[in-house]
Amino acid sequence: MSTTNTKSNSKATTLTQVQALIAGTEKHFPSGSFTLGNTAYTTATSTQAFQSLANALVALNAAHASLKDAVTAAQTIDAKVGPLVRDFKRYVVSTFGAATQELADFGLPPPKVRKPLTTEQRAAATAKLRATRAARGTTSRKQKLAVKGDVTGVVIKPVTSTPTSPAAAQPGPSAPAPAQAAPTK
């Protein structure tokens, strides 16, 4: 505000200062006249000018308060209705497709037509795709199905009993294997 000396004063401070100017003018210059900036003023005209500024500041404060309330209300409603608007726009676009007149009736632009790639752009995209697949080691679905594991030389030995002590479980290299007795009938 131009009525303040510093930029940090708020609207409330400015309003207080203007009201103090009105009160001081009426108290100390009840019927005075003075010249400011080559213009002659009386107490009544200066007080009237100060009062118009005070009224404008009060109206500004009220407008700011109502603006904050309106913004809060709009944000609350947008949170509720926004998804409906987006879904309805998608529905209208899917219903009418590229019918520009019908979409214009809803205020929607027609969907953008995909611009085909030039030969150079397509070749560059294909080269990039192949390089990426080679770097990642990815293959197609059919190529993945063709890959089979091949395991050979695996012998599975069933465990029939558990050893009782570690010495009995692992005989030394010089110890002969115990002979099995033939069963008697």
- Biggest beta-sheet profile: 2 strands, antiparallel
**Helix/strand order:** HEEHHHHH
Low-confidence stretches: none
Shape verdict:
elongated
Structural Rg: 46 Å
Q: What is the averaged pLDDT score?
A: 80
Layout of secondary structure:
Blueprint: H1 11-28, E1 33-36, E2 39-42, H2 43-96, H3 100-105, H4 119-136, H5 141-146, H6 166-169
Describe the structure in your own words.
Among the domains are: 11-80; 97-136, no CATH class. Helix content is 57%, strand content 4%. The protein contains six helices and two strands; from the N terminus they run αββααααα. It has helices spanning 11-28, 43-96, 100-105, 119-136, 141-146, 166-169; strands at 33-36, 39-42. Strands 1-2 form a two-stranded antiparallel sheet. A hairpin with a 2-residue loop joins β1 (33-36) and β2 (39-42). The mean pLDDT is 80.
Overview in brief:
By secondary structure, the chain is mainly alpha-helical. The protein has 6 helices and 2 strands. The chain has a two-stranded antiparallel sheet with strand order 1-2.
Jot down its keywords:
single chain; 185 residues; two-stranded antiparallel ribbon; 57% helix; 4% strand; elongated
